[in-house]
Hints:
Blueprint (H helix, E strand, L loop, with lengths): L3 E3 L2 E3 L5 E6 L4 H14 L3 E5 L9 H13 L6 E4 L13 H14 L4 E5 L4 H13 L3 E8 L6 H13 L4 E7 L3 H18 L5 E5 L10 H4 L3 E5 L9 E2 H15 L1
Parallel strand pairs: 3-4, 3-10, 4-5, 5-6, 6-7, 7-8, 8-9, 10-11
Antiparallel strand pairs: 1-2
Helix pairs in contact: 1-2, 2-3, 3-4, 5-6
Amino acid sequence: MASLTIKGTEIGAGVPKTIVSLMGTDAAAVLPQIEAGKVAGVDCFEWRADFCRALRDPATMAAESHVVADQLPDHPLLFTFRSTSQGGQCTLPVADYVALNRAVIEAGAIDLVDVETWIGDEAVRELVACAHAHGVAAVVSYHNFKGTPSVDWMVALLTHMRDLGADIPKIAVMATCPRDALALLAATDEAARVHDAGPLLTMAMGRDGSITRLAGEQFGSALTFCALKDASAPGQVAVPQAKRIMADLHKVLS
Length: 254
């Protein structure tokens, strides 16, 4: 697959890049998490806006994005407002969701933005176009905390996300058994080999899905969410352990 290079980090080549979520009530609250992530060797950071007190104030969030980004001159920064249905802390009306993301994109501090598919194709295309106009990569995302859809359904969704303009299509599903992890990996492999021309981000959540967070290089997922102290989703592996296992797999299969 084609890779995507941001701040010198090549996403889509070699070992999957690690990413951790920054969760705090404001920018100042996540700065210690950034420092801990740097010490752990994290490759990328996600700033979770749904944890912030000012989440309904786009201008304040835009200003706060610079505070976070100033601490990450060498690490890609993903901005995410995660809605309740997608595993987040709260939900905004679509118009407010779009306004928040537009304000942060236009502030010029972030490198990537997460756009949730539930807002509808028209709104997704609007935010993707806004992101691209400001040099920001778009992660178009879908989360399912109830189960794992069929392989064909997941491949079709990943393909549709690319058609919507996603630089990185993302799906996260819940594994209720090891077969669900196999389904997620099969969908990732097919999308990467047959339908895709850029990086993917896929995972099966939960204990039975943890293997999918570590085997991305073999099946086509270019990023993996890891835990520092607090996990942001079920089944995340601690950064040091994830980096060690992925490095060992890389050596075995090289």
